[in-house]
Design brief:
The complex is a heterodimer of chains A (319) and B (247). With 319 residues, chain A is of the alpha/beta class. Helix content of chain A is 34%, strand content 28%. Chain A has helices at residues 48-55, 77-81, 99-109, 117-127, 143-155, 173-186, 199-205, 223-229, 245-249, 276-286, 300-309, 313-317, and strands at 8-19, 22-33, 36-41, 63-68, 71-72, 84-87, 161-165, 191-196, 208-213, 216-222, 235-239, 254-259, 264-269, 290-295. Chain A has a 6-stranded mixed beta sheet, sandwiched between helices. Chain A has a 4-stranded antiparallel beta sheet with strand order 2-1-4-5. The radius of gyration of chain A is 23 Å and the shape is elongated. Chain B is 80% helix and 0% strand. The longest helix of chain B has 32 residues, at 17-48. The model of chain B has no long low-confidence stretch (mean pLDDT 92). The chains are: A alpha/beta (319), B mainly alpha (247). At the A-B interface, α2 and α3 of A face α1 and α5 of B.
Chain lengths: 319, 247
């Protein structure tokens, strides 16, 4: 069903869109390779959902081109949509259908051959852990199950590109872990775009990250690069009776130290060194009254602030 | 693909209590009219035989029942059509159809055919009610057929109007009111004039349905209904496309 010659499952260029004259998405580039999970990150209102609606043909772009598995979505929408599975923010579920009926309907709508419809629906239900509730009406399912039905309908026709808009919202931690494992598994041999505003989710699931802010992509790079941007291995050390900074800097294994508050210090370890033990030993020996030592990871908000202040972040980060 | 969408709509109608209530009401009203017309016919029968060319049971019982059925349809179709798109918008389920490999035409035609298939059910039941008279006498089957064709075309026109109205809003009730307004105006717009040559007669639904109840299947009337259906379906497709463009 797929055109395996196309190197990218998704290749969107210069996407722009405005609502009533107000630009919502500006000049967004998106490329997703086979076997790649792309994290699409951004605060609410950044234009993530609008971008995804354009990628799935729910909204026509103001400008730009979208090619899915080498098929132009704007010129041949029907052919291109066959390769896409989409879970919108609100799963498009019919409460009056049973899970099996609904998945079979989704399979038929995606042009799965009639003889394979039952198998495809059963397979998708199995993968999403829905086998036990196949006969129940969707309207009577809990939020977690509904979300899974939503994911199942997106993968029922084995698409090459899966677009998931905040798939873990409203789930409990166990369900989140299961869904993340499922997304990783789905990434095998396909392209997956995962939109979220939860940074750890991106770190555990994605290969590459793209961050949107106010309609533009402000960061695009690998998860490792993002982790470095978040502060890498830096430590946040709290001391009630701190010594002069120079003394901290002189500790073995410490590359840099700076004050992060009245009694908080940000310490960056030297390459291949772990100064935690040294810090603790010195703190005890000299009575610095250590009360906290933790990885100093910047919050998502800090990164957004950081990225949006530096307009050239995208160019620097793409390597 | 169109049939998949149609089957889905048909199913959605059959699981909704509203559709069953409307169907039951439809049957109740028409069975009552049918029986009262039959009573009147039986009372008049002795006087009718004196006439040289007396009207038969088909003309005196079945045609009037179809006439009443057409008015009941004007009221009932908006209730059945209101959810077609408006409800999907409200529940945000339209995305399933829009991101599936379907053209907007597939979606609109599927929804239209699904509703029409549902409407054909009560229409055929009225036909069966009339056909039951064949047990006790002779029927003019040509007149029965032209009545059936006429009523099916009216149902098609009303369904297209209802579908378009449903595309205008995310509130089913608003869609129902809009569909009823458009249907009623089209139904009796000819009453607005006393001039028999007025062009308003050309757009009136009733004026184009009446010949069918007299056994006249005229291409002009067939063309009118075809145009009416195509017009509102095209409007519906354009309206949904505009959603995608304007967002």
């Amino acid at each position: 069903m797929s055109d395996s010659a196309a190197p990218f499952t998704l290749d969107a260029r210069a996407l722009s869109r405005s609502f009533a004259g107000r630009p919502v998405v500006r000049d967004v580039e998106l490329k997703v390779g086979r076997g790649e999970v792309l994290g699409f990150l951004g605060p609410n209102g950044a234009g993530k959902t609008t971008t995804m609606q354009m990628l799935t043909g729910n909204l026509s772009p103001g400008a730009g081109s979208i090619s899915i598995c080498g098929v132009d979505l704007l010129a041949q929408p029907v052919a291109a949509k066959r390769h896409v599975g989409y879970l919108p923010e609100t799963p498009p579920l019919y409460g009056e259908l049973s899970v099996t009926e609904y998945l079979e309907l989704a399979a038929r709508l995606r042009r799965v051959p009639q003889r394979q419809v039952g198998g495809a629906a059963a397979n998708a239900a199995e993968r999403c852990g829905l086998a036990a509730v196949g006969g129940r009406l969707i309207g009577s399912l809990s939020k977690g199950y509904r979300q899974r039905v939503g994911i199942a309908q997106a993968i029922v026709h084995e698409p090459d590109l899966i677009i998931l808009d905040e798939p873990t919202v409203g789930l409990d931690p166990n369900q989140i872990r299961e869904i993340r494992a499922l997304i990783r598994a789905l990434g095998q041999g396909r392209g997956v775009i995962l939109s979220t505003h939860i940074l750890p989710e991106v770190e555990t699931v994605c290969d590459r990250v793209q961050i949107m802010h106010e309609g533009s992509v402000v960061y695009s790079g690998t998860v490792e690069a993002l982790r470095a941007l978040r502060g890498g291995r830096a430590l946040l050390v709290g001391l009630r009776q701190p010594p002069p900074l120079a003394e901290l800097r002189a500790l073995p294994g410490v590359a840099r130290a700076e004050a992060a508050g009245a009694d908080l210090f940000r310490i960056e370890p030297a390459a291949d060194a772990d100064p935690v033990e040294e810090i603790v030993r010195h703190a005890v020996a000299h009575g610095w009254r250590l009360y906290q030592i933790a990885p100093a990871q910047a919050s998502l908000e800090d990164i957004f602030a950081h990225l949006t202040q530096r307009e050239d972040a995208t160019e620097e980060a793409v390597t | 693909m169109i049939l998949t969408v149609a089957a889905k709509e048909l199913r959605a109608l059959f699981v909704s209590p509203l559709a069953w209530v409307v169907l039951a009401f439809f049957q109740l009203v028409l069975a009552w009219i049918f029986l009262s017309r039959l009573d009147a016919f039986l009372a008049l029968q002795s006087q009718l035989v004196v006439l040289t060319n007396p009207p038969g049971a088909t003309e005196l019982v079945i045609s009037p029942v179809f006439g009443v059925a057409s008015i009941v349809l004007v009221m009932a179709v908006p209730l059945l059509s209101m959810r077609l798109v408006a409800e999907e918008r409200r529940n945000q389920t339209m995305t399933l159809l829009l991101s599936a490999p379907l053209s907007m035409t597939d979606i609109v035609l599927g929804k239209f055919l699904g509703l029409l298939a549902f409407l054909l059910l009560p229409i055929l039941l009225i036909g069966a009610m009339g056909a039951a008279l064949a047990v006790g006498g002779r029927l003019d089957w040509g007149l029965v057929a032209s009545n059936l064709i006429g009523l099916a075309l009216v149902a098609g026109g009303l369904a297209a109007i209802g579908l378009y109205a449903s595309c205008l809003t995310a509130h089913p009730v608003v869609a129902a009111v809009a569909a009823l307004a458009i249907s009623l105006v089209l139904w009796m717009i000819n009453l607005a004039t006393s001039d028999p040559a007025s062009p308003l007669h050309l757009v009136s639904l009733l004026k184009h349905f009446e010949p069918f109840t007299k056994g006249v299947v005229d291409t002009a009337n067939l063309a009118y209904f075809a145009l009416l259906i195509v017009l509102f379906l095209v409007l519906a497709i354009r309206r949904l496309d505009a959603d995608r463009l304007r967002g």
